[in-house]
Structures are given as C-alpha cells and as structure tokens.
Amino acid sequence: MKLRMLAGVTALVIAAGLSACGGNSGSSGDGTTTIDVWLMRDSVSARFQKEFVAGFEAAHPRIKAKVQIQEWDGIGEKVTAALASNDAPDVIETGNTQVAQFAQSGGLLDLSDKVGELGGGTWLKGLAEPGAYEGKQYGIPYYAANRVVIYRTDLFKKAGIDPAAVKTRDQWIAATKKLNTGHNQGIYLPGQMWYALAGFIWDEGGDLAAQTGGSWKGTLDTPQALSGMDFYKRLQALGKGPKDSDEAQPPQAEVMAKGQVAQIISTPGGANVITENNPELKGKLGFFPIPGKTADHPGSVFIGGSDLVIPAASGKQDAAFTFVRDLTGDTWQRKLAAAMSYVPNKTNLADAVAADPGASAMAAGAAVGRATPNTPGWAAVEAKNPIKDYMTAVLTGADERGEAAKASAAITDAMKGSS
Fold first, then answer.
1. Cα separation of 171 and 163, whole Å?
2. pLDDT in tens, 215-239
3. At 171, is the secondary structure helix, strand, or coil?
4. Residue 15 — very low, low, confident or very high, per pLDDT cuts 50/70/90?
5. Per-residue pLDDT tens over the stretch 333-354
6. Measured CA distances, 276 to 253, 267, 284, 353 (Å)
7. What angle do CA 187, 189, 193 make, to 5 degrees?
8. Which of 151, 255, 294, 372 counts the highest number of beta carbons within 10 A?
9. What distances in angstroms separate CA 215 from CA 162, 380, 407, 411, one per listed residue?
10. Class of residue 76 by CB neighbours under 10 A (exposed 0-12, middle 13-18, buried 19+)
11. Which pTM value belongs to this model?
C-alpha cells in the first residue's frame, strides 16, 4: 500500500549479527555476511532509516545489509521475476495483499515456525492473515495504515455535536444529517469508495468473496453484503459526492479544503493535504474511528500496509531473519510508529501512537481491521473492479439485487481466469 514519505533512491550499509533461522550463512572470508534488502519508496523516512542503521549496527556487528529502494509501480512483476531467479534479494518489503500471489509460486520462505518468536499472537489480523497462504506464514507484519473520519471541529461544535459520542452507525447518520445543511455537505463520500464499502459489508458479517469447495466466488449478492451497500447508500446521500467516481477523482482532500465539507473518510494524511490547500482550516480538523454497528468497537476497516518476506532462494536466510526480526520487533515498531504516524504491527503496541490523534484513531480501527480476500486471484478483480460499477449502478437507481448478482459473477469470473 502506498502511504509513505521518502524521496530519493538510497543505499544503506547496515551491520547486524547472525540469528538461527535455517539456510546458508553466505559469509565472506572475514566472517561478515552481506544481505540485499528491498524496501519500498516512501515506506519510511531517511531519518528513521539512519536511526535504525545505527541501532542495528550496534546490536549486530557481523552482518551487513545493502538496502535498495524500489518503486511501487511495476513492483509485482519485478518481485515475481526475482523470486524465479537465482539472484533474488534476501529480504523484500511487499504490500500486505501481495503476499499470496508471491507465495503461490513457491518462491517464499515458510516462516510459520517463527510466529511465536516474533510475537505473532498479537499481530494485526489485517497484516497477518494476508501474509499467510494455505495455512503457512510467509509475510511478517511490518506496519499498517487505514482510513478514519476526518472532520471539521468548528462545524461539529456549531451543530452541537460531540465527536466523542459518535460511536455507532446510527449516531453517525444522525450527526451527519445535522451537518448536511445549507451550503455544507454532511459528508463528502464519492460513489466508488469500495474500500469503505468493504468495511460496512464486513460489519454485517459478509464479504466481497468467499471460498467454498476449493473455489472462490463473489458474494456481493448475499443479504449481509446487501445490508452493507444499503448503509453506504444512506451515508452517501448526505452529501454531494459524485456517484460515478472514487476518492481520487477529484481528490477528496482538495474538495474538503474548499470549506463546505464536514467529513471525509480518509487516512489521516489527508488532513495535511487539506490544510496545504486551505491554511485557514489549520487547527480545525479532528479524527475519529469509523463507527461500528454498536458502540462495543469501531467499524471494520481495510488495512493497508506492508509485510516483510524472505525469498526461498536466499542463501543468507539466517541473516535475513535477523533483519526481519529486528525491524518488526517491539522496540523498532514503537520508534517507527512515532516517526511515521503508522499503526504498529501488534495490537498491544497501540499506545505508541496515543499522543498522535490521527494515528490513534487509525490504531483503534486497525484492531478490528481486515484485508481483501486472501487469494492470488484477487489482483485480477481489482484490475477490472466490477465493485465500482456495481456501486454506481445502485446509487443511480438500478436494481440492487440484480446488480449485486452481476458484480458477484464478474468477481467469480475474474478469479477463475487468474488461477
């Protein structure tokens, strides 16, 4: 998932020590092991990288890692080619929902026996579950980010709404109705924000697709999924969001910056875009988790972020595991969360972002977050994305059940065609 802030291609030389994981040491004549690491552009800042290098070198003086920054565009094909070669890097950062397609090829090291050592019992499910494939753990959760509600504090105050009291969907609808007056939109929600729809469907007990009898089928036409779409329709009507486009067309943060939108669903970073486009809104933006069906917990959200994987072809798996273990361990996870306003990879580390309002709201939602269906075939679904067309059709008056059945069939066909 692309949620990062780093510029420039950098290469780092990191010293580290050997840890037991299996595989070859790959040591040079002087006993030093050098590993190649691929991290994604903008995943972390240069400052955090330098801090990690210093700490890593002090703790592990006999491993060196050459870190190369990779571009997100085309990374799937590049990783697939690397895994099939004899010259794969030793550690790769990958989007959490990409792990299944790489694991399917047999090119990743099975790390199932390391889950306990890495604290897997408290991993965020939205990172851990897509990091597993056919019962084996290949991806180790690195960090997460998800959507929250960004709201105008001044408009809420003027309407007499306490944002802390907006805990349930019904309360959210009631508050949004009060805000949807005059020239102001209660919420700007474009018609094709399918990640938000997924959360509403999950809250109802449904899903976008499900596996039955060894095959995957689209499930937008189940009663639960239809209930999720119904809520989306109710919420979307309390604003003027276009029914035939997503949050990027036009950029929703820029729409909110014009001053007549009370709420959007976005990652917290959207607040920076809003104030950059309208400095008068600085100090007038707040955050809360997307409300759930009940006040017991926030609404389900799609969790984006990254996992770390080790190619099976690596001859330096011991050293590679040391790198992964340190970067995903509690000490560096806390530092990463503070530096980048990310959600740490474990639920018991949420306090690391307690002082950051946006990240704190993310962490609350991430605790009940999920990922898209964990199958290599899902990439083909997103490439065509019949969910967007389904949403537009329903919001413009088409028969919901008929359109849901049509979209479900399209999802099923896309996944079959990619298997």
1. 10
2. 999 999 999 999 999 999 999 999 9
3. helix
4. very low
5. 999 999 999 999 999 999 999 9
6. 10, 16, 13, 23
7. 155
8. 151
9. 47, 15, 17, 12
10. middle
11. 0.89
Nearest Cα to Cα of residue 320 among 111, 148, 136: 111
Tens digits of per-residue pLDDT, 61-113?
Answer: 998 878 899 999 899 999 999 999 988 999 999 999 999 999 999 999 999 99
With a cut of 60, say whether residue 17 has pLDDT above it. no
Residue 38 has pLDDT above 90, yes or no: yes
Give the three-class secondary structure for 40: strand
Contact 365, 186 (CB under 8 A): no
Residue located via tokens 């780093």: 6
Per the listing, tokens 């009291």 go with 165
Q: Would you mind telling me the total number of residues written for the chain in this entry?
A: 419
Q: What is the secondary structure of 190-231 as a DSSP string?
A: -TT-HHHHHHHHHHTT--SEEEETTEEEE-TTSHHHHHHHHH
Contact 337, 321 (CB under 8 A): no
Residue 297 is which amino acid?
Answer: H
List Cβ neighbours of 114 (8 Å cut-off, separation of 6 or more).
Answer: 21, 137, 140, 321, 325
Q: At what angle do helices 400-418 and 386-395 cross, to 10 degrees?
A: 170
